[in-house]
Design goal:
The complex is a heterodimer of chains A (about 425) and B (about 475). Chain A contains 17 helices and eight strands. Chain A is α/β, with parallel strands linked by helices. Chain A starts with a helix and ends with a helix. Chain B has about 475 residues and is α+β, with helices and mostly antiparallel strands. Helices cover about 35% and strands about 25% of the residues of chain B. Chain B has 13 helices and 22 strands. In chain B, β16 and β17 form a beta hairpin. In chain B, α5 packs across α7, α5 crosses α9 and α11 packs across α12. The longest helix of chain B is centred in the C-terminal third of the chain and has 27 residues. Classes of the chains: A alpha/beta (about 425), B alpha+beta (about 475).
């Protein structure tokens, strides 16, 4: 039987013409290969060249930063994050850039976070520990921190992360490279990559979509999310946008708000942060449902005005919006169209199409993994560790993440479930829903 | 009870009544309490509470049991509200015509005093403990209770004990009571806790909430408001407007309507007016009103205030004499016991009766022993006394003898030596002792006084000793 399948598949390949190949694999060719490999690689090369050309300018920017030595306010809002604080603060106290103030905001924790935070403050390891007795959500905690900051730049961190010794320095330098930059996103890598299959797959995903994907979007001017785990902002810009709005998805939201004001957003691949990612599919699904809903909530609803010609219209925001919607929402729908197309028109060779798609995607993933590794500054994990996991990526990207994304879009488009997400307190979500925020 | 006989004034300030002699102190300038020992009781006739307080303290803080145990009565010209003075006096009368009412009390106390035996320990702590238990015995109480007291440096006074210390050394009372408890003289139970300055042990502290950055107590506090719809968080002043009393969100311009529904106040914001630092948690600092030391409350020294109850062992110690404790000081080499000293003095008097010659008894007294011993502790105290003896010994002849009358009074004989020479030698010894103390204890001034009495074979050893030490404070 196996031999029958193989013979059948060989015959299928031998019978493939170019037209036939395009007809059968149009989804892969036009959306996946062109957008996520060909264009991406091309832009990556442009970026590498530009980076090389600008290296002197970056050195000057660094010198300017070190000469001015501005105060950088590091804010760490969170609830029940006490257990992570010591590791985080240890990595912050090791930073090469020293003129910082560290402000931890406890958003109504009901564990030992207040004791731990006050202990760190008393020991002089952090500058301020601030507590809200009642939980107000991450946005309110970050906004409360802003009341206490005195720095020229605000760096927003997640408590469960840790940072390279030069991470703060690296994330601030771009502000001196281009005065129009309002926010800089840091590069988030996975700390617990070898914990489970799920964490290994996410690590490969982060290499691709964050480390490289954001380099590309940043270079194209359509970079749209400064990660809450590691983002830096000019304090005056944060003040202009009046801080963070209600989440979930508040990091993407504030990025759009800054871009709407005309500031550039930059991704700094060398500013490296390590985070622990969900280690089971259950946890990962919950996280991704939350992330994917925010596309609908913020992109499609709250900030749909970027599409319309008005005073704050900017081409790059429009392109960013279109790209985002096209390659996430529409592409997701298109995939189902493709599957239906194949089911209806090519049901007799479905197995061969499936096998070919798997092979195409796997080969592409291998190629991307190898080629892109040349563009990554550094990783905290040996590349050889991930080779065996690459074949799984086609199922991870192609099926798992796509299905989760579909569920999230449906939940948010038709039921607005993000407003019921316990990640944010209900008392604020009801208002956000009512006001369409 | 003795037969009651009419009061009779025998000399100025003394009344004989019913066989008892009462010393009356009624003038502000008459603060000498030494005469008390020659009378059965003391009556203070004064309308000034400070005068009464001063006299009572002088009597009760005296070193000699002949003085500090004497019954004290006050002619009630004013209402005495001072709780410690009330504890330290034995009663009050409205006029001298009422002496008959206090006779039973005087009689009872004198009877109980006659039960007591004193040991004259060299140890300062032992002396204090002896004093306390003897006083409790004659007061027919077994409880030494702390009295919340505004004039106390640690805010609580154990009247008969605390009265022996200068304000700044009152905390030593707690150490002495702890020693007594460890020796089984007292049982105790918790009463309260005080916090004392880590620098000077005073309990007179001013607590302030201060800026964690600059330590200033000059700050203003505002509620933090969290506006739910837009997530804006800021102090109240961000939301107020100049037109009405309403609150408007500066971010989304919406009016705040209902706390808990569209906004809440999750925390407060303090802003230092001195350095503009914004913070949420004050530091709490305590400024010592005695030494001005300003420190965080975590550096204060917490001490338990306990109520002490005399044990059976304590009661027996009062009657038989409180001989020794683990903190007591063994006999110091180069000295003899005080009783032996008195016996030898008796022999010297006898010798002088039969031969012509000039012999002297001398005394060196530390004026401020409570200060000295509270600062140096019992271990160093022993070393100090050894050093004193060593210095004295090296300046007198080997045939002269040294003894301790108490931890603060050293007595010595200088036989077959002219009076003037004895004085000169003693003066030199005092100079050397002062230099020694100045070298050993930088921040502490040890004050000495001395006296030389030429031995008169017509007088008893007791009278010599009395003449020798009567002028010491």
């Amino acid at each position: 039987m196996d031999e029958g399948i193989i013979d059948n598949y060989v015959r299928f390949l031998q019978s493939l013409t170019v037209d036939h190949f395009i007809r059968l694999f149009w989804f892969y060719i036009f959306f996946e290969f062109i957008r996520y490999f060909a264009i991406e690689w091309f832009v990556l090369n442009l970026w590498a060249i530009r980076r090389k050309l600008n290296s002197r300018k970056f050195d000057i920017a660094r010198e300017e930063l070190l000469f001015e030595n501005p105060l950088v306010s590091i804010i760490i809002p969170g609830k029940n994050e006490g257990k992570h604080l010591y590791k985080l603060i240890k990595s912050l106290n090791e930073q090469t850039y020293k003129n910082t103030e560290i402000i931890v905001v406890d958003d109504g924790s009901d564990d030992e976070t207040p004791t731990i935070g006050r202990g760190l403050e008393k020991a002089g390891l952090i500058d301020q520990f601030i507590r809200n007795d009642t939980r107000g959500g991450k946005a309110s905690a970050a906004n409360l921190a802003l009341r206490f900051t005195k720095g020229k730049f605000i760096v927003h961190l997640d408590a469960d992360c840790s940072y390279d010794r030069d991470a703060i320095e690296k994330i601030i330098i771009p502000f001196y490279f281009d005065k129009k930059i309002g926010g800089v996103g840091g590069c988030v890598n996975v700390r617990n990559y070898n914990r489970s299959l799920v964490t290994a797959l996410q690590t490969i995903e982060y290499f691709d979509t964050i480390s490289i994907g954001r380099v590309v979007t940043s270079h194209l001017g359509i970079y749209r999310i400064i990660s809450g785990a590691f983002g830096a902002f000019r304090a005056d810009v944060v003040d202009k946008v009046r801080g963070w709005d209600i989440g979930p998805g508040l990091d993407g939201d504030i990025t759009v708000k800054i871009k709407k004001l005309g500031y550039k957003i930059y991704f700094e691949q060398e500013a490296i942060c390590l985070t622990s990612v969900p280690d089971t599919f259950g946890k990962l699904t919950r996280q991704r449902l939350r992330w994917d809903k925010s596309l609908i909530r913020f992109r499609v609803r709250k900030h749909r005005d970027v599409m319309f010609p008005n005073q704050s219209f900017r081409l790059e925001n429009f392109v960013s919006f279109v790209e985002n919607i096209t390659y996430n929402l529409i592409l997701n729908v298109k995939w189902y169209v493709y599957v239906l197309d194949m089911l209806i028109n090519y049901s007799s060779v479905l197995l061969n199409i499936f096998i070919t798609n798997i092979l195409l995607y796997t080969v592409t993933n291998f190629l991307k993994f190898v080629i892109y590794s040349l563009y990554r500054m550094r990783t905290n994990a040996p590349m050889s560790f991930f080779i065996v996991y690459i074949p799984c990526m086609v199922f991870y990207f192609g099926f798992y993440l796509r299905i989760v994304r579909t569920i999230a879009y449906v939940q948010e488009l038709f039921f607005k479930l993000s407003y019921k997400d316990p990640w944010n307190p209900e008392k604020t979500s009801v208002h956000a829903k009512r006001m369409g925020l | 009870m003795s037969d009651l006989r009419p009061a009779r004034q025998t000399e100025e300030g003394v009344i004989e009544y019913s066989g008892f002699s009462f010393l009356i102190i009624d003038q502000a300038d008459n603060l000498n309490v030494d005469k008390v020992q020659y009378h059965n009781a003391l009556i203070i006739d004064g309308k000034d509470i400070d005068f009464i307080r001063q006299i009572v303290k002088r009597v009760r803080s005296h070193n000699s049991p002949d003085i500090y145990l004497k019954p004290i009565f006050v002619i009630k010209g004013i209402n005495i509200t001072d709780p410690v003075i009330n504890e330290l006096i034995d009663g009050s009368i409205f006029s001298l015509d009422q002496l008959e009412f206090i006779i039973p009390e005087v009689e009872r106390m004198l009877t109980r005093i006659s039960d007591l035996k004193f040991t004259h320990s060299i140890s300062f702590e032992a002396q204090m403990i002896e004093k306390v238990i003897c006083y409790l015995y004659i007061s027919q109480t077994d409880t030494l209770a702390p009295v919340p007291y505004v004039y106390s440096d640690i805010n609580f006074a154990y009247p008969i004990l605390s009265v022996n210390f200068r304000l700044s050394d009152e905390h030593t009372a707690l150490d002495i009571l702890a020693i007594a408890e460890s020796e089984g003289i007292f049982d105790s139970e918790y009463y309260d806790r005080v916090y004392l300055c880590s620098n000077c042990s005073s309990g007179h502290l001013s607590y302030r909430e201060v800026c964690p950055k600059c330590g200033s107590s000059n700050s203003q506090t505002e509620d933090i408001i969290h506006h739910f719809p837009c997530g804006y968080v800021g102090p109240l002043r961000d939301f107020t407007n100049e037109i009405d009393d309403q609150l408007d969100c500066p971010k989304c311009n919406k009016r705040l309507r209902h706390i808990g529904v569209d906004y809440d106040k999750p925390s407060v914001l303090h802003e230092c007016k001195n350095c503009s630092h914004k913070f949420q948690d004050y530091n709490v600092k305590a400024r010592c009103l005695s030494c001005q030391n300003d420190t965080g409350v975590e550096t204060l020294v917490g001490r338990e205030i306990r109520t002490f109850t005399l044990t059976k062992k304590g009661e027996l110690a009062a009657i038989n004499g409180f001989v020794t404790t683990s903190k007591d000081i063994d006999e110091i080499i180069g000295t003899i016991k005080f009783d032996t000293f008195k016996t030898m003095l008796k022999y010297e008097i006898e010798r002088l009766r039969q031969t012509e010659g000039s012999s002297n008894v001398c005394a060196i007294h530390i004026i401020n022993p409570s200060l000295v011993y509270s600062k140096i502790g019992s271990e160093v105290q022993k070393g100090l006394l050894k050093d004193l003896v060593k210095v004295i010994r090296s300046n007198i002849r080997s045939s002269d003898i040294i003894s301790f009358q108490s931890s603060s009074t050293i007595v010595l004989s200088m036989n077959e030596i002219p009076y003037k020479i004895a004085i000169r030698i003693l003066k030199e010894i005092i100079q050397i002792l002062k230099r020694l103390m100045a070298t050993a204890f930088n921040n502490m001034e040890v004050e000495f006084e001395y006296k030389v009495v030429q031995i008169d074979y017509k007088l008893s050893p007791e009278l010599h000793m009395h003449q020798l030490t009567k002028d010491f404070a």
